[in-house]
Amino acid sequence: MAFGFLIVRRLLPLVRLFGRLPAPFSRTFAAALNAATRPFHVINYLGSVGGALVFHGPRLTRQFDRTIDLLHRRLDGESQAALDRRMHFPVGWDPFFRDTMTLEQVYTYGAQHYDFHRAQLTIDQS
After folding, report:
1. Does residue 85 lie within any of the structural domains?
2. Chain centre to alpha carbon of residue 51
3. Where is the DinB-like domain (predicted)?
4. From CA 103, how far away is CA 83, in angstroms rounded?
5. Are the CB atoms for 91 and 34 separated by under 8 Å?
6. Which of 107, 82, 110 is nearest to 16 (CA)?
7. Structural domain containing residue 114
8. In a domain, 126, yes or no
9. Average pLDDT over residues 67-93
10. Are 90 and 97 in contact (CB under 8 A)?
11. What is this structure's pTM?
12. What are all long-range contacts of 17-26, with beta carbons under 8 Å and residues at least 24 apart?
């Protein structure tokens, strides 16, 4: 769960920046990232493995708590105009990325990411 919210922290500045620029800028950026989808998946896997070695137990809990606190404070300070800013995303990178996403949708990404992986790991007991 923590890693999905850490991703949100990294995405917010991108949406704030590209959300102020004309759409072709973020469309080009997303297309470049989509072209690198294969290497991204390898790097994403290795980063997840490495991250789990570095952040676990109490250290992961502290990092998660700091991240949630920071995201909560930032969300509280966002105007509706800021939450409505959008940018194009590399849809090949993640099942929850849409062609365009608003800042508000990016804030919800961490919970969606968690729910998805939780469902993958839950044994149906019906």
Report:
1. yes
2. 15
3. 55-121
4. 5
5. yes
6. 82
7. 2-120
8. no
9. 96
10. yes
11. 0.84
12. 18/87, 18/88, 19/82, 19/85, 19/86, 19/87, 19/103, 20/85, 23/88, 26/87, 26/88, 26/100
How many domains is the chain partitioned into structurally? 1
Residue with more model confidence, 115 or 81 = 81
Tell me the two tokens of residue 56: 């676990």
- Report the sign of the C-alpha dihedral through residues 74, 80, 82, 85, in that order: positive
Name the one residue in this structure whose structure tokens are 């508000």.
104
Phi-psi region of 57 (alpha: psi -120 to 50; beta: other; left: phi over 0): left
Establish if 115 belongs to a structural domain.
yes
Binning pLDDT at 50, 70 and 90, where does residue 126 land? low
- % the chain with pLDDT above 70: 98
93: its two tokens = 């990178």
125 within a domain of the structure (yes/no): no
